[in-house]
Each structure stands twice: as structure tokens, then as C-alpha cells.
Amino acid sequence: PIRETVERWPDMHDFMLRIKVPRGSYLQWGEHQAQSTTRYYVARGGKEMNKWMPPLARKPGEWRKIGVESGWNVQVCNRIEDAVLPVDFDYYVEQVEKLVLGLA
Predict the structure, then answer these.
(1) What's the CA gap between 49 and 65, in Å, rounded?
(2) For residues 26, 37, 75 and 82, what is the CA-based torsion angle, rounded to 10 degrees?
(3) Which of 64, 79, 81, 73 is nearest to 21 (CA)?
(4) Residues 43, 45, 22, CA angle at the centre, nearest 5°?
(5) For 46-104, how does the pLDDT look when each residue is reduced to its tens digit (9 = 90+)?
(6) Could you tell me the pTM of the whole model?
(7) For 1-104, where are the alpha helices, taking DSSP H only?
(8) 58 - beta bridge partners?
(9) What are the boundaries of each domain within the chain?
(10) Distance between CA 35 and CA 45 in Å, rounded?
(11) For 79-89, what is each residue's pLDDT tens digit?
């Protein structure tokens, strides 16, 4: 009943995640730059989000790209009105199963 519970969850706010990047770094959501502190949720039809961090001394000139919720697409949602895409319940079911099976 994990999937059933997740899909029937009444409060959209409980699906929200957030990321904050340090100064000198930035967030890229699809083709757009996002705020340094961004709220989002994993969504069907969303876009890939990446954190770009400045180069390290050993590789100067090479910015580091780090996937946010790698392998999943997200919808930026700094205001709840921006939550226009359907939640990707597969992601959240997978996360709950990891927690439940990890406790068993």
C-alpha cells in the first residue's frame, strides 16, 4: 500500500524539496538559471536540474556539474502556484521504499 498512500497524499507541500547553492555556484533548470535557494518537486514533464560549481585548483577552468535528483526531472516551485505539472509518484514511492526496507 506504499504507492496507494503516496498517490493519495493530501498535501502537495509534503512533496516539496529545496536546494541551496553556495556563492560562486549556480543552479540551472533546463535552459534557465534558477535562484540560489530553490524549492522544487519531482514532476512528470519537468526539466533536469544541475548545480554548477566553480573549478577546483587541480582542474582550473573546468566547472563542475552536479545533478540534482539525478535521473529525474523536476519542476521549480518557489510559489505553490508554480506547481502546474503532475507529481512523479514513482520517485517518491522509491524513496519511501528505501526508507522502509532500510528499517526492516
Answers:
(1) 10
(2) -130
(3) 64
(4) 55
(5) 999 999 999 999 999 999 999 999 999 999 999 999 899 999 999 999 999 999 987 64
(6) 0.90
(7) 2-7, 89-103
(8) none
(9) 2-103
(10) 20
(11) 999 899 999 99
Work out whether the CA dihedral 3, 7, 10, 11 comes out positive or negative.
Answer: positive
Sheet holding 64-68, edge to edge: 32-34, 26-29, 49-53, 64-68
C-alpha cell at 3: 504507492
Contact (Cβ atoms closer than 8 angstroms) between residue 80 and residue 12: yes
* Distance between first and last Cα of the chain: 16
26: helix, coil or strand?
Answer: strand
The cell for 13 is 507541500
Closest alpha carbon to 75 in 9, 11, 12: 12
